[in-house]
Each structure stands twice: as C-alpha cells, then as structure tokens.
Amino acid sequence: MTMAALAPENRGLRLAVRYLVLILVALIFIFPLLFMLMNSLKPTEQLLADTSSLRAFLPVGDLSLNNYVDAFRRAPVGTFVFNSVFVTGVTVIISLFICSLAAFSFVFLNWVGRGILLSIIIATLIIPFETIAIPLLLIVSKLPWLGLNGFEIGWLNTYRVQIIPWIADGLTIFLFVQYFKDLPGELVEAARVEGASWWQIYRRVIMPLSGPVLATAAILKFLVMYNQYLWPLIVVQQESYRPVMVGLGYFFQLNVAWGEVMAYLSLITLPVLAFYLVLQRAFIASIASTGVKG
Amino acid sequence: MASKLTTSNSAGWGFAIPGFGLIALFIILPFFFAFGLSLTNQRLISPNPTQYVGLRNYRELLDVAVITLKPLRDDAGALIRDEDGNLEYPRVRDITRSDEYPQYSGMREWFRWQSGDNAKVVIASDVVFMKALTNTLTFVIVVAPVQAGLALLLALLINQRLRAINVFRTIYFMPVVVSIVVVSLLWRFIYAGNDGLLNNLLSTFTFGAWQPVDWLGNPGTALGAIMAMSIWQAVGFHMVIWLSGLQTISPTLYEAARIEGASGWQTFRYVTWPGLRNTAVLILIVITMQAFALFAQINVMTSGGPLDSTQTLVFQAVERGYGKQDISGGATISVILFVLVLSISLIQRWLTRERA
Questions:
Q1: Could you tell me if B76 and B204 lie in one domain?
Q2: Do B200 and B313 fall into the same domain?
Q3: For residue B9, is it within any domain?
C-alpha cells in the first residue's frame, strides 16, 4: 500500500501518532527542568511533599521568590555569578582572537614548520582534559606571575588560572582552519598585491567574513567555560574566585534547604537556557559543525 | 597558495605562536609531564625531594593475582562446613600477610568464585582502582553504543518533514546546554529512595505494586542510574551530529529507493546507513572520550559509593592527585586512562574501517 492509497482519516491518524511520539519524547527531556523551575518557587516542606504527585511539576500552592532571596543570604551568589561571567567572557574573547589569528596563519601564510605545528595541534584533540588535570595542577601551582603585587609564584586561587589555560585549544583552531579554507584565497593575494600588511588582511579582509565561525567558536567556548567544574574545583579554594558550579557546595552543609538549591540552580541555568532559546539555530549549528569532516 | 606573495616566516610564526605556545604549555607539556610524574613519588607540596621510583606506581595499581584456597578440613580430614552448609576457607589475609608469599604482600581480595571444592580468589594490590577501572569500562561499553543508537533514533525522528519539528529539536537538545552538575543534582530527586520521582512514577504505573528502590544507594543500581542520566543529558548533542550527517545524504537516493519500492527498513539499510559511516565513527569516538571522562556525576551524586560501585578512573585520579595531594598517583591513573582512550578509539576506527 502506498501513501497515496491511504484514506484521509488514516493519514490524519498517522500524523497524530507521530506527534504523540514527538511530544512524549519531549516530556522526557523537559521534566527535570520543569521540576527545577516550579520547585524554586515553593517552600522546602511543600517541595518535598509535592514530589509524590504531579504537583511537583505544577505552579501550585504557596508560591514566592523567597528561595531566591534566601539563596543570596546563604551564599555570596552575586560573587559566584560575577566570577563565572567574568571568566567566561574574558576567555571567550581572547580565545576567538588568539585562535583565529593562529588559524589565519596556518591557512593563508607560508612559513617553515606550519604543517608540523598544525598536525601537533590537531593531535591534541585526542587528549581529554581529565587526563592532564592533575599534572596541570602541579604546573600552575609553580608558574610565576608578574602582576600588580609584583612578582609571585603560583597561580592557585586566581582568575588567571581559570582563564589562561583555556584560551587556546585544538578544536577552536581547527574550526577556524576549516572555515578559512573555504574562503577564496584570491582575496588575500589581491590585498597583498595592494600592499596590505598581514595584520590588515586579518583585521579588514578575513575577520569581517568570519561571522558564522566566530559565533560557532564563541558558543562552544561559552558552554565549556560557564559549565566549568573539575578545574575550578581543584585550583580555586577561595570563595572570592569561585565560579557558579563550584559555589553549589555552599548549599550542601548540614541541613539542605532544597527550595534554595532549586532557586540557585534556576538562577544559574535560566540565563543559559534563555540565551540558547534565542540563539538556538546558532547553538545547534555550532554543535553540528564539530561533526563535519571530523 | 604556495606563492611568494604569501610566504612570510616572521608573520607566520608571529601569528601562530600565541595559540601554539598556550597549547604547548597547558596541554602538551602536562600530557608528557603525566608520563614523567608517574615514574616518581611527586607530591603537590612536600618537604622531601622527589625521587624516581620506576614503575612502582603502576605495579601498586595494576598488580593482580589469582590464588586458590583449599577448603579447611578437620583433624579427621573431613570438610568443615558452617551453619549454612558452606565450605570454610582460610582467610585471604593469612596469605597476603604471610612471609611465605612475599609476592602477595599488601594485596586484598577483589572477588572470588567457586571451583570444585576450592575457591579461586582474585587479589589486587589496589582494589578500589580495579573497581574504578571496571566501572569506567562498563560505563563506556554500555553508554557508547546505547547513546549513539538513541541519538540516531532521535535524529531520524527529528528529520521528518512536519510542522513545528524545530520546536521538538530545540527541546531534545536543551539538556546539552545545562551543566552536568545541575543535571546531576536534579536527578538526585528523580532517583531518591523515598518519594523519588522515578519510584513514584513506577508505583503509579503498577498500581502500587512497585517496591521503592534507592537507586543511588544500592550498589546494584547506582552505576546504571548514572548511565541513564548521562545518556539523557548528552544524547541531544549526538542527535545534532547525526542530523547533520543525515542531511548530507542526497534526496535523489531516497527518491530512487522509493521508486524501486524499498521498504522503510531497506531504505535505512541501503541508503541512510552507508551515508552515515563517517558520522558513526566520529560519534562513537567522541562519546567514548566523553564517557571515559566520567567525573562530575560521581562527585555530585555518589562520591564513588555505595561500596565503591561507582568509582571511576577520573574520580580516583582527582581524589588521589588533589584530595590526597598524591600527584604521582593521580598522574599514573591519568596515563592509564589516556592509554585506554587511545586504544579504544583506534579499535573503533579499525572495526568501522572502510572495507575494500
């Protein structure tokens, strides 16, 4: 039986079944987040009582923003959020610059050693961060720094230890290289003939054409940086430098006030979700592009 | 573009060196450093100088032996049985602490099985590490194919031409942007023993016949629960990669299959799947690498328990390298982890190679 032979009501039924499946699957992906959001508005006693029924997912009962207020009282939430936003923002911006500049050099310039250097960078893609975290901890604990306070040894408990090691990575450079390869090389040669410097070509010719790859690289870096957990956990002990994910520990002292936990989780997750919903096409395109020609 | 116009060693190096330098210092150096540290007794802070210890760290982690225990007999030579009728054996401790067997010194029982009247006991010098190793391998072996398969199903589901299909794609992908730390905390509610959401749901569907399970507090279910949650969180990521693979397959191939009267399964088998080969290799390798890195879920949900049933390699590397400041011990586990990731990726690449 072909599709054309189906009676209209059959087609209607098929369509309904398809949507039913899609909706059921959607519920599986959405319910924990719904749970988080709804329960951030309820007092802890009600939250715990509600988990035994569908009420757990509904905005019913004694609703208020008290949990949010209490969360700010319990922990320096503002500091955690600032730290995460600051570290993420600075890393993303510097990373886009350093990585695109390197990729520009690999694709458009001829120089001794570029092939081998690029191969080494691509090879680092198979090193999971988790396998270098411990030796890196030792390295950063001994690195020198010349800052406002003069010369010092050791990067632990700073912003720089959360930023600098994450600026350059193989994937970001690789994404730029892939994108630049598809740009017409004649543009660069023409600019060269007209006497433009390499810096001018990077700045005035290539960067203005790189909107899509900049968005992709920025989104991927943003997700990695904002969701950092293992690294800040082991290199930052001072609360004044802690990011949001590590700050969660504050809510798990003797008596866990689950209402406050839900408020804190919502607070640190909702901005990312909102950002995602607004830019969802770009988010999904950026993940998809990590798969191209892998 | 190997023309004179584009040749410039100074500009080339100048532009590439900041990026390459950072990668060299923060990725390549610690990577090789891990190998070096694993041969020493380096600690994070120590008054004593670091010493070269050869392969001692590896032996302390990896040494495993099988010993055979003969059942105890009484003076008449009859087998001794306890109240339940089980045979009694000498204690493993008596062997691992005895001077007769210096090679077993310091080892502990990992697991045992019965072989005739004898008991075979596997002893390991680091039982917690062995559990971390087997748990991690189990996690990878289950999660990689299941997650890749489910992601493909979702991609096929989303690849239909339906109104508002993008809304569903957006929702399925949503957990990917949420931190795994946040997700792990939320799922503690789902898995809770009393009044957990999952137990309540199962209880509703079985009209109260379901006996509540403490999913994370039970050594038999904890790792499985963490697997299910990890798949839930990450499956949207690989759905998107499958989807981009699906969309590279030419519509004319589907048209041809339709004209030939191919069934849905035949179309998938002979049109869709061959077009997804490269995507499949990539996805398996990416999931494998991510699965080996299992850490945050453990740290937030179980801390390796109950009874070490959710210990993992990264959790152990961090617990030793950071928690106990035993950098060399953590580095040794890191090296073992890397060797595993690399060899499994190579095996996958070989198994899924293009057959001539």
A1: no
A2: yes
A3: no
What are the boundaries of each domain within chain A? 1-74+252-281, 91-248
Contacts of B243 in chain A (CB under 8 A): 288
pLDDT(A68) > 70: yes
Nearest to B22 among A30, A35, A167 (CB): A167
* Residues on chain A touching B204 (C-beta within 8 angstroms): none
Asked if residue B154 and residue B278 are part of one domain, the reply reads yes
CATH number belonging to domain A91-248: 1.10.3720.10
Alpha helices in chain B (DSSP H): 9-23, 29-37, 56-62, 92-96, 127-158, 165-177, 180-191, 197-205, 222-246, 251-259, 264-267, 273-275, 277-292, 296-301, 313-318, 327-351
CA distance B154 to B161: 14
Find out whether A225 and A13 touch, Cβ atoms under 8 Å.
Answer: no
Domain tally, chain B: 2
Q: Are residues B105 and B159 in the same domain?
A: no
- Bridge partner residues of B123 (DSSP): B65, B109
Structural domain including B344 reads: 128-351
Q: Is residue B296 part of a domain?
A: yes
State the burial class of residue B327 (Cβ atoms within 10 Å of its Cβ: 0-12, 13-18, 19+): buried
Distance from CA of A149 to the nearest CA of B (A): 24
Report the DSSP pairing between strands B64-69 and A144-147.
Answer: unpaired
Alpha-carbon gap: A24 to the closest alpha carbon of chain B (Å): 10
With CA atoms as reference, the chain B residue closest to A23 would be: B168
Q: Mark yes or no for CB contact A48/B195 under 8 Å.
A: yes
Whole-model pTM: value is 0.89
* Cβ contacts of A197 within 8 Å, gap of 6 or more: none
Q: Are B26 and A121 in contact (CB under 8 A)?
A: no
Segment A228-284, tens digit of pLDDT: 999 999 999 998 999 999 998 888 776 778 889 999 999 999 999 998 999 888 888
End residue of a domain, out of B124, B139, B171: B124
A288 closest CB neighbour out of B189, B192, B244: B244
How many beta-carbon contacts under 8 Å exist across A and B?
289
